[in-house]
Amino acid sequence: MNRQVTLNLHPTRRTLLAAAVIGLLGAALPVWAQTPSTPTDPAVTVPPVPRLADLGTTRRLEVLPLVEWGTSNSALRGEPGVSYLVRTDRSTILLDVGANMQSSDPSPLQANMKTLGVDLAEVDTVLITHNHMDHVGGLANARARTFALGMQPVDLAGKRVIVPVAMTYPGLAATVADQPLALAPGVASTGAIHTTIAMGPVDEQALAVRVQGRGVVLIVGCGHQGVPNLLARAAQMFGEPVEAVIGGLHYPIPSGRWMMNGVDTQRWATYGSGPGPTPEDVQRDIDRLRAAGVQWVSLSPHDSSDEMIELFRRNFGAGYHDLRLGETQVLTGP
Ligand SMILES: [Zn+2]
Ligand SMILES: [Zn+2]
Asked: Residue 172: helix, strand or coil by DSSP?
């Protein structure tokens, strides 16, 4: 906020006085309130939503990547897709179902769940961040506006399914989170945030988890919403600091993970033939995250390059945590 106001000022006495007053006000504000990702940030496009009341907190948050690009465990199958098991005090959520790029049976998700000893019975909620093939179990599912854990039907009876746009799943009714939605104590969907990339419009939701004694943790799929919108939505919903960001923020810079017929698919799908963002643009997002109070970042390698991961690591130091298939991240209060 301060940075923008200062840039817009003309060097007259009155505006210098205004700048001094705003500067003093800014100094008195908590760090998170000074984030550039307020509605005054021109990069923010997300419409306002009411504050989410009485969400409560969770004492413990665990995020276990079941599908991701990178792993140090050769018994697990990596791919450029996302599926995370999110465990809180009162809820276990399966966020996305991977890509199943090879249409294999069992899918990487199913094989990795078995290897890691994860039983679908413990999952009470399946949340699909957005309808892209690397999150819904393959291109055929994305085209059919559905999702699948594997090649054979999987019964999800009794589980809650939260989707960002109208999508179907055999035998149950999915709930469309087009607005923020409380899911469990301390756990909510941000609601779908609408953006447009080269391949078309995207509506993507993220998970927001309030960890007792810490702050809000955002768990993100591809991150098409963009950092300014994610931070702005978290501020709208909670008005309190964002402690951590875990998951995809979509920085295939200089190149993405997935070449198809010589085409860098992640870049092409997002930026078309345009140049796309630069490392300087990514640094601006990092600055926004830091200004919002973010202490902990785990960037998904499924849609960000090694170069951009290193840029985050340099900026966040010990606050940077590698997001690897099969390795649980644990956030608890002090
Ligand atoms: Zn993705
Ligand atoms: Zn995507």
From this structure: strand
